[in-house]
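User: I've been going back and forth on whether these two constructs are worth ordering. Before I decide, could you fold them both?

Assistant: Sure. I'll take them in the order you sent them. The first construct and its C-alpha cells:
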Amino acid sequence: MPFAYYSRLSPARRRIYDRSDAIERIALPDAAALRPLLAPLEAALTGERRAEAERLCAALAAGIVGQLRAPPLRVAVLAVRPSSDWGELHGLYLPEDEGQLALIKLWMRTAKNKRVVAYRSFLRTLLHELCHHLDYELYRLEETFHTEGFYKRESSLFNQLLPKALPAAAGEAQARQGEGA
C-alpha cells in the first residue's frame, strides 16, 4: 500500500515509486564476510571513538557495494546530529556530484542530550542511507523514495548482517560456533 504522499506524485514519479516499492530485498552474496566488522563498530560507537566508527562504517559500506558491484561511496561519521523544529537529522545521503563520490553522513550523538546513538539505530541509519545509494546506482531509479519496498530492503540488509536481530557480539559468537562445527 503506497504511503499518503503517493497521491500527490506525478504519473512519472508514481512509476518510479512503484518500481522502488516492488524491490523488497537486497541479497548480499556473502553477508557473513561482513559480520566481523560489526562488533568492532559497536565497540567504537559505544567507546565514542568517532574516527574508528567512521573507518568501520566506510569498510562496511565498501563491502556491501563491492559485493553488489555498485559504485563506491564515501562515509563520514560526525559528532552531534543537526536539529531544528522538524526534529533531528540521523543520516544524509548526497549523490555523486561533479566527479565527487557519493557521500553518506551519519551523526553519532543525539542533538538534545548529546548521547551516543544506540548501536542498532546507528547501523540501521547507515543501511538506510546506503539504500538511497543503491536506489540510484544499482537499481537505476531516477529518484529514491521512502516506499514500503525501500524499508524492506533496509531491513533485509540489517537481518542478513545481524541474523535474527542478534546483538553484534552474539552474532560473532554464533559465527565462531559454526566454524568449530
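The second construct, handled the same way:
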Amino acid sequence: MLPKNARYSNTMIAIHWFTAVLVVVAYLVSEGGRHVRANPPVLHFACGFAVLVLVFARLIARAAGGAPPPVASVGPALARAAKLGHAALYLLLIAVPLTGWYAVSRLGVPIDLWGLRIPAIAAAVHGRIGPIGEIHQIGGNAILILAGLHAAVGVWHQFARRDHTLERMSPF
C-alpha cells in the first residue's frame, strides 16, 4: 500500500479517468465530412467540450498540489520522458477539442449543449473548411495512440519495475 502523499489527489484521479472515458466515447461516436452539417454528432461535441473543460480543471488541480512527486526509483531520463509524454497529452487534450470547435464553427453547425448555446469561434463558410478537420482527426488518432502508450508504460512500471505507479492513479 502506498502512503497517501504518494498518490494523486482524489480530484486528479477522478478527472483523469473521466477524461479517459470521454476521449474514448468521443472517438467511438465521431463522424466526419459533410454528414456533420446534416446530422451533427451532439454526443461527440459534448464529450469534446467536456474534455476541454476538464483539462483546464486538471491543470488547476495539478497546480494546487494534486500531483505527488515522481516515483523515487525513476531516473532522470524516464522522468524527462514522462514529462514530455504528459505535456504532449495535455497539448492534444486542448488542441483536439479546439480544432473540433473551430471546424464545426466553420461548418456553421450550431452547438447546443446542456441547454447552452456554445458560441462559434470562426465564421461559417459554404464550401470546404480547410485543413482543420483533418488536423482534428489526426489529433484525435494521436490522443488514442499516445494514451495507449501512456497506459502501456503504466502497466510496465507496475508489473515489470514493481514501483506501484498504477496504484498512484487507481480509483480504488
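Notes on the second construct follow. Residues 4-169 form a domain with the Fumarate Reductase Cytochrome B subunit fold (CATH 1.20.950). The longest strand covers residues 111-113.
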